[in-house]
């Protein structure tokens, strides 16, 4: 059956209400929320909405739907700004689950690290292979910020070291660090579902025994690590810079990402007082800032 979809730019504050309107007033058969990095938002717990940052709302309709009616409803809604951004697309009739699976391939980061979906053959059995399926949580290596962090980790000597993954999401960076030789990784995230996703993915990869996971209010006081990674967003990286810097041991390493090129120099100033920073690494308008604590 052919379909048509509309994608609207929204915010964390009004996305759920817009989604409800699309379902109840315009006849959408489904609504999907996408975060600012075009990553599916993890399914919320009953009664909860887990959206953060700028959010896209995607409504799916039967292809016979009069989209002019949908646009008229949106234009007349107090939830929608007068100049709201939107895009309408026709979708081919195909096996979308199969298509999605076929288009996700093993990816190599650095010299030895691979991220592989469970249904694909591992390209290099003797390499460092992390098995992670897309859609389980936030981050599978496809976004430039994640790939920048994975490549950075691959270039470090992590043998016997303690790592903190601040904002662990799917656990991809934490699991990669353990597979690359880290002795222990501490994952911290504000979302209980991210904690669960990290735990599940660590178990799938056989490294759960060396991974500690905490919500911020539950983490031990005074914890520090040899290496800290934080792939979040520019705002929290600024606001939480004292906390993030305090997690790094003296002479320890830090890598942060989730920063646009236009934000990188400013974000770097929040860390240059305590760290000797490397040249900023960029990819597809996104950046990684790294350095060593004095």
Describe the structure in your own words.
The protein has 294 residues and is of the alpha/beta class. The chain has two domains: 3-93, Alpha-Beta Plaits (2-Layer Sandwich), CATH 3.30.70.120; 137-293, 3-Layer(aba) Sandwich (Rossmann fold). The chain has nine helices and 15 strands. The strands form three sheets. Strands 8, 9, 10, 11, 12, 13, 14 and 15 form an eight-stranded mixed sheet that branches. It has a four-stranded antiparallel sheet with strand order 2-3-1-4, covered by helices on one side. The protein has a three-stranded mixed sheet with strand order 5-6-7. A hairpin with a 3-residue loop joins β5 and β6 (113-116). The chain is globular and about 60 Å long. The N and C termini lie far apart (61 Å). Mean pLDDT is 83; it is low at 38-53 and 136-140. This is Ribosomal protein L11 methyltransferase. S-adenosyl-L-methionine binds at residues 146, 167, 189, 231.
How large is the count of helical segments?
A: 9
Unreliable parts: 38-53, 136-140
What would you report as the Rg, rounded to the nearest angstrom? 21 Å
Quaternary structure classification = single chain
Kindly name the structural category. alpha/beta
Pfam family, one: PrmA
Protein name: Ribosomal protein L11 methyltransferase
Subcellular location: Cytoplasm
EC number: 2.1.1.-
Key structural traits:
294 residues; alpha/beta; Alpha-Beta Plaits; Rossmann fold; 2 domains; eight-stranded mixed beta sheet; four-stranded antiparallel beta sheet; 15 strands; cytoplasm; transferase; SAM-dependent_MTases_sf; S-adenosyl-L-methionine; methyltransferase
């Amino acid at each position: 059956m052919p379909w048509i979809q509309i994608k609207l730019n929204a915010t964390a504050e009004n996305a759920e209400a817009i989604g409800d309107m699309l379902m109840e007033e315009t006849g959408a058969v489904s609504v999907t929320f996408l975060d600012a990095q075009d990553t599916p938002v993890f399914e919320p717990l009953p009664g909860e909405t887990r959206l953060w940052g700028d959010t896209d709302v995607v409504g799916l309709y039967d292809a016979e739907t009069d989209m002019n009616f949908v646009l008229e409803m949106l234009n007349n809604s107090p939830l929608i700004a007068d100049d709201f951004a939107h895009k309408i697309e026709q979708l081919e009739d195909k096996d979308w689950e199969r298509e999605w699976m076929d288009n996700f391939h093993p990816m190599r980061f650095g010299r030895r690290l691979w991220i592989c979906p469970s249904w694909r053959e591992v390209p290099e059995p003797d390499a460092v292979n992390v098995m992670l399926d897309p859609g389980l949580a936030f981050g599978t290596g496809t976004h430039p910020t994640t790939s920048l962090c994975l490549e950075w980790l691959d270039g470090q000597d992590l043998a016997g070291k303690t790592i903190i993954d601040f904002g662990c999401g799917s656990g991809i960076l934490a699991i990669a660090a353990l597979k690359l030789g880290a002795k222990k990784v501490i994952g911290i995230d504000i979302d209980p579902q991210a904690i669960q996703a990290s735990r599940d993915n660590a178990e799938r990869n056989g490294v759960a025994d060396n991974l500690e996971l905490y919500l911020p209010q539950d983490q031990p006081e005074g914890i520090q690590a040899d290496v800290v990674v934080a792939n979040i967003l520019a705002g929290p990286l600024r606001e939480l810079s004292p906390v993030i810097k305090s997690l790094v041991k003296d002479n320890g390493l830090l890598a942060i990402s989730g920063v646009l090129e236009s934000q990188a120099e400013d974000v770097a100033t929040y860390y240059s007082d305590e760290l000797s920073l490397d040249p900023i690494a960029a990819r597809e308008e996104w950046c990684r800032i790294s350095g060593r604590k004095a």
